Amino acid sequence: MIPTENECYALMDQYQMLDNIREHSMVVAETVKAISSGLVHSGIKISVSKAVAGALLHDIAKTQCIQSGGDHASVGREICLQHQFDEIADIVGEHVWLKDYSLDSVYSEKEVVYYADKRILHTSVVTLAERMHDIIERYGRNDSRLAERVRMNFTVCKGVEKKLFSQLDFRPEDLARMIV
Ligand SMILES: [Fe+2]
Question: Could you tell me if 85 and 2 are in contact, meaning their C-beta atoms sit under 8 angstroms apart?
Answer without folding.
Answer: yes
